[in-house]
Amino acid sequence: MVAVKRDKISGDALGTGRRKTSVARVRIRAGSGKIMINQRPLAEFFLIDQDRRTVTDVLKVAGQLDKLDVSIRVNGGGTTGQAGACRMGIARALISYDTELFPAMRDEGFLTRDSRMKERKKYGKHGARKGTQFSKR
User: Structure pTM?
Assistant: First the structure.
């Protein structure tokens, strides 16, 4: 069963998404389809078309692209990680908004957290794995 998170004062649906080092806090309410990220429109925040598509794909699958206003606070990481975090947060918020969307979100993989992280640099090496050049003499 999915835990339903709703704001008690405004009735908004809430969701949190994570990807790499990015964290997105998403708030959804009925509206006209406006997507605001850190108080900026989607097209102004994500300049790369692929990142914009990543965010809007969730709403297209749910059929809610023109029916919901989405407000997102995202921080940490780069643009691709932030877009992935927004996608997961929107999917979680949609489920708390309408629990019947759960199978569609799960089947598309929007609820699965991408756990790939950057591997840390080790001492005595140039990076995570690259060592010094071997010298025979």
Answer: 0.87
Pair 26, 92: CB distance under 8 Å: yes
Range of 67's domain? 13-101
Q: Residue holding tokens 């992935």?
A: 84
pLDDT in tens, 33-81: 999 999 999 999 999 999 999 999 999 999 989 999 999 999 999 999 9
Tokens 């809007």, residue located: 56
What is the CATH classification number for the domain harbouring 66?
Answer: 3.30.230.10
SS3 (DSSP) at 95:
helix
Query: Using 50, 70 and 90 to split pLDDT, how confident is the model at 8?
Result: low
Per DSSP, helices labelled H in the chain are: 42-45, 49-62, 79-97, 102-108
Cα separation, 32 vs 93, whole angstroms? 17
What contacts 87, CB < 8 A, 6 or more positions away?
Answer: 17, 19, 54, 55, 57, 58, 110
